[in-house]
Amino acid sequence: MRAPLTKQEKDFLLVLARKAMVQAVNGKTIQPIASESIPPRLKELGASFVTITKFGELRGCIGTLEPYLPLAEDVCEHSAAAALHDYRFPPVSPNELNDIHIEISCLTIPEPLIYDNPEELLTKIRPGIDGVVIKDGFHRATFLPQVWQKISSPAEFLDHLCMKMGVSPDYWRRKKLKCEIYQVEEFEEVIST
């Protein structure tokens, strides 16, 4: 696992995310980032999720599990997508921008979780630490580790994850699913009071 991001790197990503979201919501093309201004580690491939909230309620969350862009570009892309393309919500409008709060999660590469039965799966997932991906054929769903703040029981966590995947809550008890875990480095904009 790579070393944690510095405060300067986190702040840089938060500024980028905000700029990309504002440009996208206002119908403008996201301006490319001047390569010389990007800290070296943020030019490395990285996977992120950008979560946006409004008055503490989820307003959008988009990201990727596998790195395919430099981290700085990945954050920009997902910030704009969280604001405009999360199918669960209408697109963010320009008059909402001041009420939107941005949180970024930088992911480790998911690793397979080997288990033999549902009871063993419950003991291998670490509440508050692991993000979890479940897969069955072409269906896939994930919850970031932050979801543990709302669902602390591993069984309930997996129930909700199955529902997110579009199957019955107890599906993980009836069929052995492919499962992966990952961790995140999470940071967010400072809320001014």
Alpha-beta classification: alpha+beta
CATH topology of the largest domain, by name, is Glycoprotein, Type 4 Pilin
- CATH superfamily caption of the largest domain: Hypothetical protein ph0010, domain 1
Question: Strand fraction band?
Answer: 25-35%
Shape: globular
Describe the structure.
With 193 residues, this protein is of the alpha+beta class. The chain folds into two domains: 7-107, Glycoprotein, Type 4 Pilin, CATH 3.30.700; 111-182, Dna Ligase, domain 1 (2-Layer Sandwich), CATH 3.30.1490.150. 29% of the residues lie in helices and 26% in strands. The protein has five helices and nine strands; from the N terminus they run H-E-E-E-H-E-E-H-E-E-H-H-E-E. The strands form two sheets. Strands 1, 2, 3, 4 and 9 form a five-stranded antiparallel beta sheet that branches. A four-stranded antiparallel beta sheet has the order 5-8-6-7, covered by helices on one side. Helix 1 (7-25) packs across helix 2.
Secondary-structure topology with pairs:
Blueprint lengths: L6 H19 L19 E10 L2 E7 L5 E2 H14 L15 E8 L3 E2 L5 H7 L6 E6 L2 E5 L10 H12 L5 H4 L3 E5 L1 E5 L5
Antiparallel strand pairs: 1-2, 1-3, 1-4, 4-9, 5-8, 6-7, 6-8
